[in-house]
Amino acid sequence: MIIQRQEDVTPAVIDAYKNIADPRLREIVNSLVKHLHAFAREVHLTEEEFQKGCELIAKMGQMTNATHNEVVLMSGSLGFSALVCLLNNGNRGQTETTANLLGPFWRMNSPPTENGASIVRSPTPGPTLFVNCTLQDQSGKPVAGAEVDVWHSSPEGFYEQQDPKQAPMNLRGKFVTDAQGRFGFRSVKPAGYPIPIDGPTGDLIRAGKRHNFRPAHLHFLMFKDGFKTLISQIYVNDDDKRETDVQFGVTKALIGDYVRHDGPAPAADVTGAWYSLDQTFVMEPGTARLPKPPIQ
Questions:
Q1: Do strands 128-136 and 182-188 pair parallel, antiparallel, or not at all (unpaired)?
Q2: Is 184 in contact with 173 (CB distance < 8 Å)?
Q3: Which of 69, 97, 268, 279 is 20 to 30 A from residue 80's alpha carbon, by CA?
Q4: Are 185 and 70 in contact (CB under 8 A)?
Q5: In whole angstroms, what is the distance from residue 241 CA to residue 82 CA?
Q6: How would you classify the pairing of strands 274-282 and 128-136?
Q7: Among 255, 223, 202, 238, which Cα is nearest to 76's?
Q8: Are 237 and 250 a contacting pair, CB within 8 Å?
Q9: What does the pLDDT look like over 15-55, one tens digit per residue?
Q10: What is the percent of the chain where pLDDT is above 70?
């Protein structure tokens, strides 16, 4: 097709890719072309802006390595990661879900840990936290024998691989749900933390006059054959950044009831204020798959 005017470009490109054999790939490419071209027309993208956009995309690729993914960071800061998660969980976006973002700090092979045991593996000062969880299917029946990875930041806002003061695998553990679908553990209350802002994502955040903090949360990854792998984050209800999360990850269903206690704790060695969290997760039927670990 010989192009005569700007309106001809879009149908020419769509026609050029009509022979893509995979129907789903063909659908995605066609829609991408339509929306990308519509975006350029809507904002009347200038040539200078187009060049700057290409430079930005290239910079995101250049900054991405085995320990940092600038593309994923940017996707989160645009709310795109949260949107994709919500579209693909909760009966494909129709109902509330406890699914959430994986984040950049999940590791394979967390230490197997007995239910109720501590995941504090090196001195980590902070308020003690006791967590009790129940895993159910969509009909409310317990999901027994599921493997559950747990990980979180320290009360100073660092994951163990960021902090030389923490032992390897500190604040990480792998649990197995019992016959009632329950698992629990002892830890310390996590803190929020900033995301990196030394690249294009930081430029966007500064342009929007936004802070670059994530509110405090616990991470969970629940795996069992016959169920879609459930990845979740449960956010601390007294964190003042929960309504302005830089990655748009906080949903109403994911704000946990972290209860402060000033009286006797479940363990005799706990002094001062301590916290408890009771949380229920619902797994959807599907195929169990583990994601690629962001940390190699």
A1: antiparallel
A2: no
A3: 279
A4: no
A5: 17
A6: parallel
A7: 202
A8: no
A9: 999 999 999 999 999 999 999 999 999 999 999 999 999 99
A10: 99
- Residue 106: what residue type? W
Place of tokens 């990875």: 149
User: Which residue carries 């962001």 as its tokens?
Assistant: 294
For 207, the token pair is: 């342009």
In this prediction the pTM is 0.93
SS3 for 205-266, per residue?
A: HHHCCCCCEECCEEEEEEECCCECCEEEEEEECCCCCCCCCCCCCCCHHHEECCEEECCCCC
